[in-house]
Design a protein that fits this description.
Blueprint (H helix, E strand, L loop, with lengths): L7 H9 L9 E4 L6 E4 L1 H12 L3 H22 L1 H12 L21 H23 L8 H31 L5 H8 L15 H14 L4 H30 L7 H14 L6 H9 L3 H34 L2 H4 L6 H20 L6 H17 L6 H4 L13
Antiparallel strand pairs: 1-2
Helix pairs in contact: 1-3, 3-9, 5-6, 6-9, 6-10, 7-9, 12-15, 14-15
Length: 400
């Protein structure tokens, strides 16, 4: 059915001036003007929002701003209006300023466009998950695809929770400042503002009455009632948006992003790991347990070899101090080992001379014995292994 609706700006102005009451029904004519229909204020706003493609919360906020701006204009133009408001203010608030009555208390207003963005994102994620589940049997799903959806899901959850917190903050901020004063003024008739003219001369009183009617309309009570009612409309729309966000996030009644995230986690356990480039990167970032075990085993073997070398060095030192004659009785089979010892001894002596003989003779002998012992143990590897090893000059107790 075609209805003749007000222009949005005209609609806001009529509410701000009290010509349309939010609490009462609104008469809407047909384009031909031969029929009239009555609509509630929320229904009328739905029609305007559908026609102008705007959200209802934004429309309500514009109406609230229009009411506050209209009252501030009246406050600046009429001293009688200012005095009566101050009188009502002093009866409820100590030391309050009249302009505080028309202050916008919403510090961080909610933007419905952000909600619609996340809602479209949720619908897209749900479609992608449905497509992924249908491709499970054909092995067309990879672990990287699931990880991508999980990241998108978690990011959307964080944004929606932030939007929900903003809505909760705005819930109490929609109320006008000093709502009790608004309630008292909504019960005062237009004659309440004429009391200041009672002590004026007749000629001044007539002029004052003319100015009073110009700046303070007969519908002033409806204006204050609209200011109170629009805050309640904002709260109801706020609650509706919170429920929508809660359904997208997910709860006991609705399956949302939280349930989607849990489902993606379950799918990630049944999908084999990627073996391509992404799987290669994953293996680089997360080393396998076998590698750790091999490193531990290698470290244990090195510690064990060092301990064995130290024990052998101590035993050889005791044998050398006990009986030097035993070396003269070695068989001809050991002659190559004696040559190796001589060459190692000569190399150690040369290195010791080049280093300026910084270590004591006892320390040098001990280091030499250790190297000789290692030479015996590693002889199968070839004597050139030791002759080519660089000497270590970092401390006095080792010269190789």
């Amino acid at each position: 059915m075609n209805l003749l609706l007000h222009n949005t700006d005209d609609f806001i102005d009529k509410i701000s001036e009290g010509h349309i009451s939010i609490g009462n029904g609104i008469l809407v004519p047909t384009p031909m003007g031969n029929q009239m229909f009555q609509m509630t204020f929320p229904e009328y706003c739905d029609k305007i929002c559908e026609r102008d493609n705007i959200d209802k919360l934004s429309l309500y906020r514009k109406i609230q701003h229009g009411i506050n701006r209209g009252c501030l204009r009246k406050l600046n133009r009429s001293s009688a209006f200012h005095d009566k408001l101050q009188e009502a203010m002093d009866g409820c608030v100590t030391g309050g300023c009249v302009t505080d009555l028309f202050e916008d208390r919403v510090k961080r207003p909610f933007k419905t466009s952000y909600y619609h963005t996340e809602k479209d994102r949720y619908d897209s994620l749900r479609d992608q998950l449905s497509t992924m589940e249908s491709g499970m049997d054909a092995d067309n799903v990879s672990l990287s695809d699931i990880s991508y959806l999980q990241n998108e899901c978690n990011d959307s959850l964080a944004n929606l929770r932030k939007q929900s917190s903003i809505l909760q903050e705005n819930m109490d901020e929609y109320e006008p400042s000093h709502s009790q004063v608004w309630h008292d003024l909504s019960m005062e008739p237009h004659s309440f503002y004429k009391q200041s003219l009672s002590n004026m001369p007749d000629q001044h009183s007539r002029y004052g009455d003319k100015q009073l009617r110009k700046n303070i309309p007969e519908t002033i009570q409806t204006i204050y009632l609209n200011g109170r009612d629009i805050s309640r409309c904002l709260q109801k729309e706020n609650q509706s948006l919170q429920q929508c966000i809660s359904s997208i996030i997910g709860n006991d009644e609705y399956e949302g992003l939280q349930q989607m995230d849990a489902q993606l986690r379950r799918l990630s356990h049944v999908i084999p790991k990627d073996t391509g480039f992404m799987g290669f990167l994953q293996n680089l970032i997360t080393p396998s347990h076998d590698t750790d075990d091999d490193q531990q085993d290698d470290g244990a073997d090195e510690s064990y070899d060092d301990q064995q070398d130290d024990d052998a060095a101590e035993d050889d030192a005791e044998d050398d101090a006990g009986d030097d004659a035993q070396d003269d009785e070695q068989s001809d089979e050991d002659q190559p080992e004696d040559d190796l010892v001589d060459r190692l001894t000569k190399k150690a002596t040369d290195n010791h001379t080049k280093q300026g003989a910084k270590g004591s003779s006892g320390e040098w002998n001990e280091a030499l014995n250790t190297q000789l012992t290692r030479g015996k143990k590693k002889q199968k590897g070839g004597e050139e292994y030791f002759l080519s090893c660089p000497s270590n000059t970092s401390n006095n107790s080792s010269f190789f």
